[in-house]
Write a structure and sequence with these properties.
This protein is of the alpha/beta class and 412 residues long. Helix content is 31%, strand content 30%. The structure holds flavin-adenine dinucleotide.
């Protein structure tokens, strides 16, 4: 039986491990802290089939300096981190044009358009099905002018056949009373989904993987290589492990592990936060992107999770006050009359490459080593399918999805 090691047990790694196991491989899943201990724990839980627009939309370059000065705006930057960030930022902001946005949509569409059915296929027979819900995904605009200003995004979604309807905030308030009087305009996208507890979902999938004979190892990966006979070797703080293939799914932490291969990985953490309202007296019906604050509100098991913010401050800095204050401010004005027991906050790291597309595929010259990371804001949405793609690349030597937009060498 051929062996594969999957390094990193977020949604991408766990999906990869399960699909490989189903394809008949002996799989070992390695994580330094265990399943869903990274970004996959605290995301907004939205299965965003309409996720076709990057952060780098046209107009951002002009708006960004004003956003950084406005404490209620969702963009943050740690001044001391700026010199390190600058090369990334220059390239990243260079993508704020219509042509690159269209390339992004073309690249992401195959990973996100069928997200709900991909998650259902992944979770089938695992016990994790209970976390998947079919729902609408809404975008709430406090001012109709802001909706009109977002025309590029909605035109693009229309082109990609996203099914949505635009309604007055008052009309939507009748459907989802918690939002009554909160928005001028709401756009409701159908055929979306949500995960009612993203961390527990990934952990349930990992439990199933182990119950089916998969091995889970707690170890920190420090290096990987392919030896002259083609064997794939993973080096960890607990020793070396060998296999026929390795898939590297360590999210935003993947960059230093790839440096030795000469692969350029222009990736930064787009830090994000969540605040949860525990045991609220009323829940929203659907997930809602609060456009003014760029955070998503999702009803979850026993709580409402409000997750968003884009902060550039690197991987080492801990939680910072200003983004949490901004999120709190928006939550307070949205749910001022809502009673709940307590709040919990969390910081997470979205893996963002300059073109906002992931790196999925084998490493040129080391064909038994594979990468799958860099899904930025859409790793939960695209993670189930990405695992399936890696499994197909390994077991069938090719995938039904064209992986050329995600090539590991595309920045060299
Ligand atoms: C606030 C916020 C809201 C979000 N909302 C959504 C949403 O609604 N929908 C959506 O689709 N996406 C959302 N995302 C993005 C999504 O969460 C991520 O893209 C996704 O979780 C990335 O998954 P991953 O498996 O690649 O990485 P991770 O979940 O980060 O997993 C990587 C794993 O690798 C392990 N690891 C790292 N380094 C090592 C090492 N050296 N050795 C061993 N193990 C290692 C870590 O412990 C971790 O478990 C959100 C993100 C944030 C921050």
């Amino acid at each position: 039986m051929e062996q594969v090691i999957v390094a990193g047990a977020g949604i991408v790694g766990v999906s990869t491990a399960i699909w490989l196991q189903r394809a008949g491989y002996k799989v070992t899943l390695v994580d330094r802290q265990g399943p869903a201990s990274g970004t996959s724990h605290g995301n907004a839980g939205v299965l965003a089939a309409s996720g076709l627009t990057p952060v780098t939309m046209p107009g951002l370059v002009k708006k960004a300096p004003f956003m950084l000065l406005d404490k209620f705006s969702p963009l943050f930057l740690r001044a001391g981190y700026f010199p390190r960030l600058l090369p990334f930022l220059a390239e990243y902001l260079g993508k704020c044009n219509y042509e690159d946005v269209r390339l992004y949509a073309k690249g992401m569409a195959p990973l996100v358009h069928d997200t709900v059915s991909q998650h259902r296929a992944l979770a089938k027979g695992t016990g994790a099905e209970q976390f998947i819900e079919d729902t609408d995904y809404c975008f709430g605009y406090a001012d109709n002018q802001d909706f009109l200003a977002d025309a590029i995004a909605w035109d693009l979604r229309r082109e990609w056949n996203v099914d949505f309807d635009v309604m007055a905030g008052k009309a939507y308030g009748k459907i989802d009373p918690i939002y009554d009087g909160k928005f001028a305009t709401v756009v409701r996208c159908s055929q979306h989904g949500r995960i009612s507890d993203p961390g527990a979902y990934v952990q349930a999938l990992a439990k199933h993987f182990e119950a089916e004979g998969g091995q889970l190892e707690l170890a920190t990966v420090t290096d990987l290589r392919q030896d002259s006979s083609g064997r794939a070797i993973l080096i960890t703080d607990k020793g070396e492990m060998g296999a026929d293939k390795i898939a590297l799914t360590t999210g935003v932490w993947s960059k230093p592990l790839l440096q030795k291969f000469g692969i350029r990985v222009p990736m930064e953490s787009e830090r994000g936060y969540h605040i949860e309202l525990v045991n609220p007296e009323l829940y929203p019906k659907n997930s809602m992107m609060v456009v003014g604050g760029k955070f998503a509100v999702t009803p979850m098991n026993g709580r409402i999770r409000c997750a968003g913010v884009v902060e550039f401050a690197g991987l080492e800095a801990g939680k910072r006050e200003a983004p949490l204050k901004m999120l709190s401010h928006h939550i307070q004005s949205l749910f001022s009359e809502l009673n709940y027991d307590s709040q919990i906050d969390w910081l997470g790291h979205r893996p963002a490459l300059v073109d906002s597309l992931p790196m999925i595929g084998s490493i040129t010259g080391n064909e038994n080593l594979f990468t799958a990371f860099g899904h930025q804001h859409l790793g939960l949405t695209g993670g189930a399918k990405t695992g399936r793609i890696i499994s197909e690349l390994i077991s069938q030597d090719g995938s039904s999805v064209d992986v050329s937009p995600y090539h590991t060498n595309r920045f060299n």
